[in-house]
């Protein structure tokens, strides 16, 4: 950096905070727009100026610290709520699948019991075991009337 630019930088650092923010912008602008090409050393100095103007110790970061903290807090809350909601959805899907499984098992058992308890099935089982005391009626069902 030339002596003239060095002196300008020192003057700008000694000015009021509002002027420091403006000086940071002008340093960045000068570093990015400067058409002089004195080699790699000049580019490194410009990069240092840009990084120094963007440093966290700058006035802009101090003024925006509350907003940045609020944004960070919002991101943390969003991530934690998303994790909790996703866990609940996984648990709900698991319980729904388990409920479906139990419903199918119940239907299977119900149909098996219905099949085993039919009169014709009971008669066949009794005949197969050699018990002949239970038999089907040959007479029609007697109906009672309200006379």
Topology:
Layout: H1 3-13, H2 17-33, H3 40-53, H4 59-63, H5 65-117, H6 119-129
Helix pairs in contact: 2-3
Question: Can you walk through the features of this model?
Answer:
It is a single chain. This protein is mainly alpha-helical and 147 residues long. It has helices at 3-13, 17-33, 40-53, 59-63, 65-117, 119-129. Helix 2 packs antiparallel against helix 3 (40-53).
Q: Which blocks of ≥5 consecutive residues have pLDDT under 50?
A: none
* Portion in strands: under 5%
Radius of gyration: 44 Å
Helical amount among residues, as a percent range? over 70%
Task: Summarize the main sheet.
Answer: none
Total number of helical segments? 6
Apparent shape: rod-shaped
Tell me the distance between the termini: 123 Å
- Structural class, from secondary structure content? mainly alpha
Can you summarize this structure?
The radius of gyration is 44 Å and the shape is rod-shaped. The mean pLDDT is 76.
Notable traits:
147 residues; mainly alpha; 6 helices; 0% strand; rod-shaped
């Amino acid at each position: 950096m030339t002596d003239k630019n060095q002196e300008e930088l020192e003057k700008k650092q000694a000015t009021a905070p509002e002027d420091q923010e403006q000086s940071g912008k002008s340093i960045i602008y000068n570093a990015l727009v400067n058409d002089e090409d004195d080699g790699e050393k000049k580019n490194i100095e410009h990069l240092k100026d840009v990084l120094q103007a963007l440093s966290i110790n700058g006035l802009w970061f101090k003024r925006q610290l509350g907003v940045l903290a609020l944004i960070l807090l919002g991101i943390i809350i969003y991530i934690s709520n998303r994790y909790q909601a996703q866990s609940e959805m996984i648990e709900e899907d698991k319980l729904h699948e388990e409920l479906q499984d139990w419903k199918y098992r119940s239907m299977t058992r119900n149909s098996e019991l219905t099949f085993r308890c039919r009169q014709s099935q009971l008669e066949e089982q009794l005949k197969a075991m050699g018990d002949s005391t239970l038999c089907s009626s040959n007479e029609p069902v007697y109906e009672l009337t309200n006379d």
